[in-house]
């Protein structure tokens, strides 16, 4: 086992282009150290490239089909969606493996890990998207000292205008600095072989600002705040002869347009709306628009608490099905004058062969309505294979008014999820061109397929995040590392190998060094 301490910094939605473009001008010396003395390169995310599946893949070294997190939500047989978080009982994270092998660990707010570790030797504060929980009195006492209860939940106030983007940036920066100070105190007073500190505020700020002319003034201070902590950590690592690793789950980009994937599926005849909603859309006017506004307000009140993923889906499945049926009966005829946000109960599933759901990012997840669902229409395996081939071809043929291709690549869900039994897996994933988001929910009466992004989607994700490495205690071939094709699945075996522990993950994704 290596005696060399390992420090890991996680940054949600950090792209290489932001760091390389701005690290000098913003005096982000924490990042500059990686670029000038170590390695900083791209690292490919999961499919879709989302917080939900990507961080658990970093923790476990396996694809989503094996750790059980396809996104923030998963599809149920009755077409509702349920919240899903990372569960260490399905596939344990690297910190639990390290602790069972005698490496004392500090784990600060790992995204999607909402339950603290119960393994001796792990001091942990759980992470986004739920309020912080604590594995020990030690970390609980420090969190209380700094009045820290988790990442600020201000998205609803940002959408309403109660909190401006400038104020949000300041709130998020304060959260980053608080977490940094807490981590510093714990590291200085504890004897940890591995410390992992994760920051997720960058993702929220980028979502709300990246296509704006002044986005840098909101986003870059957060990177500078993280860099300041990294600078302190690198100084400590230099004194100890330790190694510092930098990871992000995916990247970020400005969004200029949204393509309505279910609108396309409906227009092509693959999906069908309920007759009462079709009638409402056909005859919608001011009264219908008011009723639609009431419907959306009600659904938001039922489905969310702030921006937490707290949904009515937590009800038992039988009650959840009754709630869905009641919603469908009460609100089925509600539609806006042109734009309608589609919900699970808006589809005539008996007439639907394929629909998009769950993901709402530059990668769409499309489900074939087969026997996995209560009203599956595509029964024969041969019919499903034929439909999948047809859809994958037609998706690549989608062009905009200027003749530009909208979808740049399609992926077979069977290949990627490898027959998982942990959730109903998408059958097809479609990746959009740069600057385009694939919306799985909107529909336009006019038949149009492109709309402008809303406030919370001014920025969204990229396939590539970052991987950085900087060692003060061993000689590493940084050029060779930077030239490698890296995936989020490579992180866990790399961490274990650093401590002389044999990885037990997907053999396709070995240690990076």
Using the coordinates above, name the CATH class of the largest domain: Alpha Beta
Average pLDDT figure: 91
CATH topology of the largest domain: Alkaline Phosphatase, subunit A
**Largest β sheet strand count, sense and barrel closure:** 7 strands, mixed
What is the count of distinct domains?
2
- Percent range for helical residues? 25-40%
Give the neighbour order of strands across the main sheet. 2-20-8-1-7-5-6
Runs with pLDDT <50, length 5+? 304-313
The tally of strands reads 20
Describe the structure.
- With 513 residues, the protein is of the alpha/beta class.
- It is built from 18 helices and 20 strands.
- A seven-stranded mixed sheet has the order 2-20-8-1-7-5-6, sandwiched between helices. Strands 12-13-15-14 form a four-stranded antiparallel sheet.
- A hairpin with a 6-residue loop joins β12 (354-356) and β13.
- The model is unreliable at 304-313 (pLDDT under 50).
Q: Which short descriptors sum up this protein?
A:
38% helix; 513 residues; 18 helices; alpha/beta; Alkaline Phosphatase, subunit A; globular
Write the layout of secondary structure elements.
Blueprint lengths: L5 E6 L4 H7 L6 H9 L1 E6 L6 H10 L3 H4 L5 E3 L5 E3 L10 H7 L4 E4 L13 E4 L11 H9 L9 H6 L4 H25 L4 E6 L1 H9 L5 H26 L2 E5 L3 E4 L2 E4 H7 L7 H9 L2 H18 L13 H15 L7 E3 L12 E3 L6 E6 L12 H16 L10 E6 H5 L10 E5 L3 E4 L2 E3 L5 E2 L7 E4 L1 E8 L6 H6 L7 H8 L15
Parallel strand pairs: 1-7, 1-8, 5-6, 5-7, 10-16
Antiparallel strand pairs: 2-20, 3-4, 8-20, 9-19, 10-18, 11-17, 12-13, 13-15, 14-15
